[in-house]
Amino acid sequence: MTGLSNDAPRTLGKNNGHEYESLDQYYVHPSLIERWGSAMDVVYPDSKRCCCFTKSYYRYVKGTGSLLATVQPMKRDKTSLKAQCLRYFTPREVANLHSFPKEFEFPEHISLKQRYALLGNSLSIAVVAPLLQYLFTEP
Predict the structure, then answer these.
(1) How many CA atoms lie within 13 Å of 112's alpha carbon, on the beta-carbon side?
(2) Which residue, 2, 42, 45, is CA-closest to 23?
């Protein structure tokens, strides 16, 4: 596992013209886990909830959104955080949680930090759309 990098995404390869990025850049560095582990919100692939993603997600770990444990521990507690290989959700995963369409893509010139900032300032389409319909429907 490598530490968290703010560099441009490294790619694993291409398939049908699409590049697939490596997840290495999304892993949380062990020193951050040591320092902020008690304040991190950790979720698992089978979790039914996560914290709100803020525009500071990926730049900070405390209070900016949930981290994904990529290794399932025998016991879910804060003492085994390093062994759980924590990583940030990718921008695509955050967009999925916000119910963005599968076809949605950021323009290439939008940096990784900008993607997180834009997603952190967005609302879930699945929640807002019905609310707007309700609010603007004549009684």
Answers:
(1) 17
(2) 2
Q: For the stretch 66-78, what's the b/e string if a residue is b when 16 or more beta carbons lie within 10 angstroms of its beta carbon? A: bbbbeeeeeeeee
Which among 21, 3, 2, 1 has a CA at the least distance from the CA of 11?
21
The answer to whether 32 and 4 have CB atoms below 8 angstroms apart is yes
Distance CA 118, CA 11 (A): 22
pTM of the model: 0.76
Contact 37, 64 (CB under 8 A): no
As a whole number of angstroms, the distance between CA 104 and CA 12 comes to: 21
For each of the chain's 139 residues, which pLDDT tens digit applies?
333 333 334 444 444 454 556 899 999 999 999 999 989 999 999 999 999 999 999 999 888 999 999 998 777 666 688 889 999 999 999 999 999 999 999 999 999 999 999 999 888 888 899 999 999 997 7
